[in-house]
Amino acid sequence: MANSFAVDEDRDAHLSGKKPPPPAVLALRHAVLILISLTTLAPFIWMVLTSFKPLAEVEQLNPIPSVWHPENYAEVFKQVPFAHYYFNSVFIAAWVTFLQVFTSCLAAFAFARLRWPGRDGVFRLYLATLMIPGVVMLIPNYAEMVQLHLFNSYIGLIIPASFTAFGTFMLRQFMLTIPRALDEAAAIDGASPWVVFWDVIMPLARAGVITLAIFSFMGNYGSFLWPLIMIKSEYLRTLPVGMLFFDSVYGRQTNLIMAASVMNILPLIILFVSTQKYLVKGIQLGAVKG
Amino acid sequence: MKQRKGDLLPAIGFLAPNFIGFLIFCAGPLLYSLAVSFSDWNVARPGVFHWVGFGNFTDLLSDASFHTYFVNTVYLMIGIPVSIFGSLMLAILLSQKLKGMVVYRTLFYLPSFTSGVALMILWKALFNPDFGPIDYALNNFFHFLHVDAQAPAWLLSTKNIFALDIEKLGFNPKQFGLGARDALIIMGVWTGIGGNNMLLYLAALTNVPQELYEAADLDGASKWDAFRHVTWPQLAPTTFFIVVMSVIGGFQAGFDQARVMTAGGPAGTTTTMSYYIYQKAFEEFQMGYASAVSWLLFIIIFVMTVINWRLGNREDD
């Protein structure tokens, strides 16, 4: 169980009986999988096709645009500061990710590799907060930001989102799987805890750190509730908040709304395809200790 | 073991950046919120602040809209077993040795990876009765069959598959049909079915010892027997984990959909507990009452998790 994150790409081997199934069975399996894939893809296909249609054709229900209108995409940038939404989302998500990963690495090391009185008690406190619904923290964090005059600011968007128990919990689980003999050997050689952390543990925890970074970035790129509450000014709008605004004010232009949606999810698809390997491992790791 | 004592100082150093943030933005707010839930703090009335003891909580228990929103939240959770079962079926399909498996996996995972406001706006258009492709297809289908039926109005309709009444708790045959809540469930299943739960099942399937299947095969077990007596029990810990996490998530769910797609309507049928908290706090500014709702939500989740643990552990015996 402790090692389930190490299961690698060769998962296809499962149930791979001894004899290969007959071609008819194989074809049937592919048929089922293709059918499910189409159900999954159909909304995306509709979104992309609609994004290239002239507005008049959205309600005419022909699936393929009679004339393709790539300029719909440019039109989105004219109507709303979409590039700025992009910048805000990426900028905020990048900062949150950096702070979350950096502080989680340090804290996870303290929990996983150092021994100190009260460690398990403090860790239990962290775990307990994982069970608490996010909405419970919403009102006090909002009040706190207003009091500190950080309401409606980048800092107010970044800082409260940057400290979650989840990252610490996940990296601690990861670091526990690294053999203890390694840091003990380094300690005997006189290495300081910082050297053990930086030169021994961090290189080995790289996969876990990358996974956490991807999760954190994805989650904050799409984050909706906190920005919705924190943002009053237009220049702070992130993609989700900007999309909501675009949809509620210009909602009748379904073709443009769909173009904006496509542009919203495109970076996620690119990120997903390029980091798939880490994600699968990370998701399994999250379940190691249920 | 001798140098262990020396770990305390470095531990403080390593922990401090995270722990200080944790105290200020997690633990502290938690206590603050608990305190606020016993007050009548209202942002719209600055300077007026009273302790009301359990007043908010007793109000809540007799708050008819809270009852409705609790029912809505539970209603939307019926998508959970469907989604979990679907994830398991997909994982079994995907764990076969077939060419192109990575492509299928990526496609199935796409909705959960890209989920968010953009996809909710997409589904709002898909469910649109005027130009949405779903009703277009349904109406054509009815026409083709010469059936005199009307496609559902989805997000605009208070109808629901259980024929629940909207005025009071109870049933009303006139409400039978497909409406906003069912639309959100369909979207939820589509989003979640190929997501993290499926990946968890895939990982768990690789850990089932092959010998068990071989033994079952030798005993002449059918595919179904092998599933019932090998796969299902072997996957029990994973299923348990997924159920616990889904129930915890389910009680907190519904805010994004309500805010983006339905504004909690029609007639409050898609307002869940988390959207109610948002409305109370950030539209009506009743911070005290909203905090009380959020703590009640926490208590519900806590009790459900304990019940889940009890049930799960009994199965282990």
Essential attributes:
heterodimer, A: disordered N terminus, B: 317 residues, globular
Shape of chain B: globular
| Ends distance of chain B | 38 Å
Mean pLDDT of chain B: 87
CATH architecture of the largest domain in chain A: Orthogonal Bundle
Mean pLDDT over all positions of chain A? 84
Largest interface: A-B, 102 and 97 residues
Proportion of residues in extended strands of chain A: under 5%
Strand content of chain B: under 5%
Distance between the termini of chain A: 11 Å
Overall tally of domains of chain A = 2
Following the backbone from N to C, one meets helices and strands of chain A in this order, namely: HHHHHHHHHHHHHH
How is the main sheet of chain B built? none
Q: What structural class do helix, strand and pairing data of chain A support?
A: mainly alpha
Q: Rg of chain B from C-alpha positions?
A: 24 Å
Provide an overview of this structure.
The complex is a heterodimer of chains A (290) and B (317). Helix content of chain A is 70%, strand content 0%. In chain A, helix 3 packs across helix 14 and helix 8 packs antiparallel against helix 11. The longest helix of chain A is centred in the C-terminal third of the chain and has 33 residues. With 317 residues, chain B is mainly α. The mean pLDDT of chain B is 87. At the A-B interface, helix 1, helix 4, helix 5, helix 6 and helix 10 of A face helix 1, helix 4, helix 5, helix 6 and helix 9 of B.
